[in-house]
Every structure is written in structure tokens, then in C-alpha cells.
Amino acid sequence: MLPSEILSLVNELRRRHGVPEVRYANTGVAQYRANYMLREKLFNHYDRQGLPPFYYFAIHGNYFYSEEAIGYVQFRNYPEHMVEEAVRGIIMDMVYRDADSGWGHRDTLLDPCFNYGDVGLARDRNYVYVDVTMVSAWIQWASPPRVKDNMFHAKGKVFHMVPERVTLFRAEVSERNLEKRSYDLGEPIAMVLPEPYYVRGIETIRPKTWRMGQELELEFRLPKFQGLVSVVISGKDLRNVRWNPMTPKQVGECNLLCYPVLMQG
To answer: For this UniProt entry, which segments traverse the membrane (predicted)?
Structure first.
């Protein structure tokens, strides 16, 4: 089964659930992740160091928000048509039999926030690994996100979404992450807010530049933490697409960017 056929199946499932289709995007990360899982014989969202897939999404030059759904099949002496059926079964199971994963794969594949998708497929004589990376790409960057001298800066134009929040998350990079059943952004450590607003319980960061609308520009200093610190921009979906998530995802709310930075403290 070709990657394009897998994405077509994902779109068929999205249509069944009344969700807009996604277009293909060659992010480079879906195939990288599938190759990695096959090479290492490691079926996990984290790599052996404990780094999550969104880290690799960013270092492959993708400055948007993404989520990953993965599956694999072990087989011996299967005819080709049975291998293809097994791969098709992986995708179907993600949507209809995903209770053991808390329906996370289902909601990743069906989330209307995503408008692009990438598929990686890697196999040998005994295994097939599949990676579906869903992408929320609603920002046209004039100046892509970057960090220089500990200052974060990004500038671009936003389509169909209204950015509302900038939250920083911190995650440990550890082999212990391999014990998790799923991956996450980590714990929230700060929000970026202009005066006079502030947030309770975590740090409030005052931005040097704060433009949060169709024209987006942000500049602020990152706090000093150790681990993987991710800048996440989230906002409101203006398209009024209705769907029924089975995870804590909120209808009409979308993440637009996850920009992770490995920090040493």
C-alpha cells in the first residue's frame, strides 16, 4: 500500500465524519520516523533518547503544529495483498478501535484543525511501520520562528484562524519517556501576555512585540529552564467545523505552532 493510498484512506474516513480532507505535504518527518522505528525495531512515539515526534517535525524545517499517529504489523511470508490489508487495518483501527490509546490516534486523524498530512511507510521482510503526521498549517511566515540570544521572534499572516494564546511547555528528555503510552508537550510553565494581563500558577512573560490577529508578530525572551521547551500558539477556528472528539480536544480550538527548543538551563 503506497503512502498516497494511506492518505486517501485517511481522507475517506474524514469525509465519513464530516471533516474536511487534508492535502499531502512532504514534511520529511513521517518517512524519517517510519525508517527510525523500523531500523531500531522500536514502536514508540519517542526515540531512544526520549525526544518526541514534534521535535523532529521542527528540525526538519516545519514551523507549524503537528501530531503523529503510528502503527505497525509483524508478519512472516505474507502475500503482498495481505500486507496491504494489514496496513489498511492499522488505519481503520486508529479510528474505530483506539480505546487502548485513549482515542488519541482517532482524534489526530479526524481533527479538522489539520489541513495537511504526510505518510511514512517502512518495511522489511517481517515488519511494516506506518507514520501518519497531521499538520496544522495556517500561517504564511514572513519571518519564520527562531530563537537568537534567547529571544523568540516570529512574524506572518494567519488564515482562517484567530491566534489567541501563547503558552510555553517544558518536557523532560529522558529514556523514561519510552514507558509512556502516548506523548505530550509536557507541563505548562509560562504564558506570554501583554500588560495588564497575567496568569496565575505559572510565569507570565511580557512580550517585546505582541500582534495577535491576521497579522501576527511575536517577540519575547524565553525563560531559563532545562529540557525541551516548546512555544505553542493556539487560537480559534473561524470555519465553524463541527466534529465529535473523544479526547479532551475542544471543538473550534486549534494549535497553530509548536516550536521546540532544547535548553540546558
So the answer is: none
